[in-house]
Amino acid sequence: MAYTIALIGRPNVGKSTLFNRLVGRRIALVDDQPGVTRDLREGDGRIGDLNFRVIDTAGLEIAADQSLPGRMRKLTERAVEMADCCLFMTDARAGVTPADREVADILRRAGADVLLICNKAEGRVADATHEAWSLGIGEPIPVSAEHGEGIQEIYAALQPRI
Ligand code: GDP
Ligand code: MG
Protein backbone atom coordinates (compact mmCIF):
# COMPACT_ATOMS: atom_id res chain seq x y z
CA MET A 1 0.00 0.00 0.00
CA ALA A 2 1.27 3.42 -0.94
CA TYR A 3 2.03 5.94 1.77
CA THR A 4 -1.16 8.01 2.07
CA ILE A 5 -1.42 11.70 2.84
CA ALA A 6 -4.75 13.36 3.64
CA LEU A 7 -5.36 17.06 3.07
CA ILE A 8 -7.40 18.16 6.05
CA GLY A 9 -8.91 21.51 6.94
CA ARG A 10 -12.04 23.60 6.92
CA PRO A 11 -13.44 24.69 3.54
CA ASN A 12 -11.60 27.32 1.49
CA VAL A 13 -8.12 26.97 3.02
CA GLY A 14 -6.72 25.67 -0.29
CA LYS A 15 -6.81 21.88 0.04
CA SER A 16 -7.88 21.29 -3.56
CA THR A 17 -5.29 23.77 -4.82
CA LEU A 18 -2.52 21.86 -3.02
CA PHE A 19 -4.01 18.55 -4.20
CA ASN A 20 -3.81 19.71 -7.80
CA ARG A 21 -0.23 20.85 -7.31
CA LEU A 22 0.84 17.53 -5.73
CA VAL A 23 -1.02 15.40 -8.26
CA GLY A 24 -0.08 17.61 -11.19
CA ARG A 25 -3.48 17.45 -12.79
CA ARG A 26 -6.59 19.45 -12.19
CA ILE A 27 -8.68 16.64 -10.75
CA ALA A 28 -9.96 18.43 -7.69
CA LEU A 29 -12.34 21.26 -8.27
CA VAL A 30 -11.05 24.63 -7.09
CA ASP A 31 -13.53 27.41 -6.82
CA ASP A 32 -13.90 30.81 -5.25
CA GLN A 33 -16.99 29.52 -3.48
CA PRO A 34 -15.93 27.85 -0.22
CA GLY A 35 -16.37 24.09 -0.14
CA VAL A 36 -17.25 23.31 -3.74
CA THR A 37 -15.67 19.87 -3.73
CA ARG A 38 -18.15 17.73 -1.87
CA ASP A 39 -16.43 14.41 -1.46
CA LEU A 40 -13.14 12.64 -0.95
CA ARG A 41 -10.87 12.61 -4.01
CA GLU A 42 -7.73 10.52 -4.40
CA GLY A 43 -4.75 10.83 -6.68
CA ASP A 44 -1.10 9.84 -7.03
CA GLY A 45 1.01 12.67 -5.66
CA ARG A 46 4.68 13.45 -6.11
CA ILE A 47 7.24 15.91 -4.76
CA GLY A 48 10.62 15.28 -6.35
CA ASP A 49 11.50 11.61 -5.71
CA LEU A 50 8.72 11.12 -3.12
CA ASN A 51 5.65 9.28 -4.34
CA PHE A 52 2.49 8.96 -2.29
CA ARG A 53 -1.28 8.71 -2.43
CA VAL A 54 -3.16 11.97 -1.72
CA ILE A 55 -6.70 12.33 -0.43
CA ASP A 56 -8.49 15.66 -0.78
CA THR A 57 -11.37 16.23 1.62
CA ALA A 58 -14.21 18.55 0.94
CA GLY A 59 -17.34 19.72 2.61
CA LEU A 60 -20.25 22.04 2.74
CA GLU A 61 -19.96 25.78 2.79
CA ILE A 62 -19.46 27.32 6.22
CA ALA A 63 -18.62 30.82 7.35
CA ALA A 64 -15.20 31.34 8.91
CA ASP A 65 -16.68 31.83 12.39
CA GLN A 66 -19.02 28.82 12.24
CA SER A 67 -18.36 25.35 13.50
CA LEU A 68 -17.83 22.39 11.20
CA PRO A 69 -21.01 20.73 9.92
CA GLY A 70 -21.37 17.07 10.95
CA ARG A 71 -20.79 15.90 7.38
CA MET A 72 -17.48 17.73 7.15
CA ARG A 73 -16.49 16.28 10.49
CA LYS A 74 -17.32 12.73 9.28
CA LEU A 75 -15.38 13.19 6.04
CA THR A 76 -12.39 14.50 7.98
CA GLU A 77 -12.50 11.55 10.38
CA ARG A 78 -12.74 9.11 7.46
CA ALA A 79 -9.76 10.68 5.69
CA VAL A 80 -7.71 10.66 8.91
CA GLU A 81 -8.37 6.92 9.28
CA MET A 82 -7.17 6.27 5.73
CA ALA A 83 -4.03 8.39 6.05
CA ASP A 84 -0.50 7.72 7.28
CA CYS A 85 0.04 11.47 7.64
CA CYS A 86 -2.34 14.43 7.64
CA LEU A 87 -1.49 17.80 6.15
CA PHE A 88 -3.67 20.06 8.30
CA MET A 89 -4.16 23.23 6.30
CA THR A 90 -5.11 26.65 7.60
CA ASP A 91 -5.48 30.00 5.83
CA ALA A 92 -2.71 32.35 6.95
CA ARG A 93 -4.70 35.33 5.67
CA ALA A 94 -7.83 34.48 7.64
CA GLY A 95 -5.91 33.58 10.80
CA VAL A 96 -6.93 30.77 13.15
CA THR A 97 -10.73 30.27 13.26
CA PRO A 98 -13.01 28.23 15.57
CA ALA A 99 -13.43 25.66 12.78
CA ASP A 100 -9.61 25.30 12.62
CA ARG A 101 -9.59 24.56 16.35
CA GLU A 102 -12.29 21.89 15.84
CA VAL A 103 -10.20 20.26 13.13
CA ALA A 104 -7.17 20.35 15.44
CA ASP A 105 -9.25 18.58 18.11
CA ILE A 106 -10.35 15.86 15.66
CA LEU A 107 -6.72 15.23 14.70
CA ARG A 108 -5.54 15.20 18.31
CA ARG A 109 -8.29 12.78 19.36
CA ALA A 110 -7.44 10.47 16.46
CA GLY A 111 -3.76 10.50 17.46
CA ALA A 112 -2.94 11.35 13.84
CA ASP A 113 0.53 12.16 12.54
CA VAL A 114 0.04 15.80 11.53
CA LEU A 115 1.96 18.46 9.64
CA LEU A 116 0.52 21.96 10.10
CA ILE A 117 0.45 23.81 6.78
CA CYS A 118 -0.32 27.56 6.75
CA ASN A 119 -1.45 28.21 3.21
CA LYS A 120 -1.83 31.54 1.37
CA ALA A 121 1.37 32.70 3.09
CA GLU A 122 2.93 34.16 -0.05
CA GLY A 123 4.87 37.30 0.66
CA ARG A 124 4.22 37.59 4.40
CA VAL A 125 5.60 34.53 6.03
CA ALA A 126 6.35 35.68 9.60
CA ASP A 127 3.05 37.11 10.86
CA ALA A 128 1.07 34.64 8.78
CA THR A 129 2.30 31.63 10.71
CA HIS A 130 2.86 32.97 14.23
CA GLU A 131 -0.76 32.59 15.37
CA ALA A 132 -0.95 28.99 14.13
CA TRP A 133 1.37 27.88 16.96
CA SER A 134 -1.68 28.30 19.24
CA LEU A 135 -3.33 25.25 17.61
CA GLY A 136 -0.91 23.11 19.61
CA ILE A 137 0.01 20.98 16.59
CA GLY A 138 3.62 22.05 16.38
CA GLU A 139 5.66 24.17 14.02
CA PRO A 140 3.60 25.67 11.20
CA ILE A 141 4.97 25.30 7.68
CA PRO A 142 4.13 28.40 5.61
CA VAL A 143 3.25 27.62 1.99
CA SER A 144 1.48 29.07 -0.99
CA ALA A 145 -0.26 26.25 -2.82
CA GLU A 146 -1.29 28.65 -5.56
CA HIS A 147 2.21 30.06 -6.15
CA GLY A 148 4.11 26.86 -5.40
CA GLU A 149 6.01 28.25 -2.42
CA GLY A 150 6.98 26.08 0.56
CA ILE A 151 6.71 22.79 -1.33
CA GLN A 152 10.36 22.01 -0.51
CA GLU A 153 9.55 22.45 3.19
CA ILE A 154 6.71 19.93 2.85
CA TYR A 155 9.19 17.61 1.10
CA ALA A 156 11.66 17.98 3.98
CA ALA A 157 8.98 17.09 6.53
CA LEU A 158 7.64 14.12 4.54
CA GLN A 159 10.95 12.66 3.37
CA PRO A 160 11.86 10.93 6.67
CA ARG A 161 8.31 9.54 6.97
CA ILE A 162 7.96 7.88 3.57
P1 GDP B 1 -10.55 24.07 -0.36
O1 GDP B 1 -11.99 24.41 -0.12
O2 GDP B 1 -9.81 23.94 0.95
O3 GDP B 1 -10.36 22.90 -1.26
O4 GDP B 1 -9.89 25.36 -1.07
P2 GDP B 1 -9.60 25.62 -2.63
O5 GDP B 1 -8.39 24.87 -3.07
O6 GDP B 1 -10.86 25.38 -3.40
O7 GDP B 1 -9.21 27.17 -2.61
C1 GDP B 1 -10.08 28.13 -2.08
C2 GDP B 1 -9.69 29.50 -2.57
O8 GDP B 1 -8.41 29.87 -2.08
C3 GDP B 1 -9.61 29.58 -4.10
O9 GDP B 1 -10.07 30.85 -4.49
C4 GDP B 1 -8.10 29.45 -4.35
O10 GDP B 1 -7.72 30.05 -5.56
C5 GDP B 1 -7.54 30.20 -3.15
N1 GDP B 1 -6.15 29.78 -2.81
C6 GDP B 1 -5.67 28.53 -2.74
N2 GDP B 1 -4.36 28.51 -2.44
C7 GDP B 1 -3.99 29.80 -2.32
C8 GDP B 1 -2.72 30.45 -2.03
O11 GDP B 1 -1.67 29.84 -1.84
N3 GDP B 1 -2.75 31.81 -1.96
C9 GDP B 1 -3.89 32.54 -2.17
N4 GDP B 1 -3.81 33.86 -2.07
N5 GDP B 1 -5.07 31.96 -2.47
C10 GDP B 1 -5.13 30.61 -2.55
MG1 MG C 1 -11.76 21.64 -2.14
Automatic annotation (TrEMBL):
Binding site for GTP 1: 9-16, 56-60, 119-122
TM annotation in the entry: none
Highest taxon above the source species: Bacteria
Annotated ranges, domain EngA-type G: 3-162
Biological role: GTPase that plays an essential role in the late steps of ribosome biogenesis.
Subunit structure: Associates with the 50S ribosomal subunit.
UniProt record similarity statement: Belongs to the TRAFAC class TrmE-Era-EngA-EngB-Septin-like GTPase superfamily. EngA (Der) GTPase family.
Protein name in UniProt: GTPase Der
Source organism (scientific name): Pikeienuella piscinae
Species classification: Bacteria, Pseudomonadati, Pseudomonadota, Alphaproteobacteria, Rhodobacterales
